[in-house]
Amino acid sequence: MRIGLVNDVAIALEALRRVVASCPEHTVAWMARDGAEAVRCCAADPPDVILMDLIMPVMDGVEATRHLVHAHPECAILVVTATVEGHLSRVFEAMGAGALDAVNTPVLGAGGALVGGAELLRKIAIVGRLSGVGGRGAAPSPRPPPKGAAAAEPAGSPPARPWLVAVASSTGGPAALAALLGEIPASCTAAIVVVQHVDVRFAPDLALWLGGHCRLPVRTIVPGMHPEPGAVLLAATNDHLWIDGAGALSYRETPRELFYRPSADVFFRALAAGWPTPGAAVVLTGMGRDGAEGLLALRQAGWWTAAQDAASSVVHGMPGAAIELGAAGLVLPPAEIGRELARLL
Predict the structure, then answer these.
(1) What's the pTM?
(2) Residue 95 contacts by C-beta under 8 Å, 6 or more apart in sequence?
(3) Of 1, 59, 127, 245, which residue is the least packed, with the fewest Cβ within 10 Å?
């Protein structure tokens, strides 16, 4: 892959250059010292992937990401910053604008040794596959897990089933989720479960960030939990979210061939097969088709369904696929979907 590097610190740029050069599959397309220069470089020579710093002069990484996602949607953007944990708000702003993932900047150690290079290369490979670089092709449709694979039900009587809202999102998802959840009142008695394509290490921080944008508590899902009335539960591993006949949430590796993890289709189909009363399901912005077939299964089972419109989507792949299948009862921007949900509730 051809990779553009964006960082205003010379030693950081050198570390990035060395990491990219260490892999025969990658080449450096260009190097930029701020977001504005990156926008100009990309206009002249669009690469496959851009490694984007956040804190820079002239134009920061969030604003540069917004420009580049709209002008060059074919260029995948990976946030690479000195400390991801130290800039969480900006990380999720950038991901809401269309960045696919985030990772700490590699460091040149004693004797020129690189610390963090392997993790950066791993993330580059993931981002390349998410964006389709290298001819990955469409992800296969999910299959139900094999019989007998359901998680053991927790002891005691399961809690009463609340009205359930299931939401799927990917590229641009943090901002879309914040807009939708921000319209749900604190008096909500429904349970909301979110499947967002995000690396497991960022899920707890995403839950904290979303909690600052809505009136409901946001928690990550631990196996054995049940959907909670008046709470937002977020899938928090790189495996697929599942729900069994008793309403207990769990994670499973299968189907292993699905690259989008956790897969919204897997969770939606589990709900269509096992949740006793129809609720509401939504597919928001994201690459690919994940969630489209599952949303159709839920609509056919009597669920209220909606998908994000093209104009407000960072990438209209997932909701667009759902609309093409006839899976979406409504097509609206996230905040309007949230207001419709509030009226339903």
Answers:
(1) 0.81
(2) 79, 101, 102, 172, 173, 174, 198
(3) 245
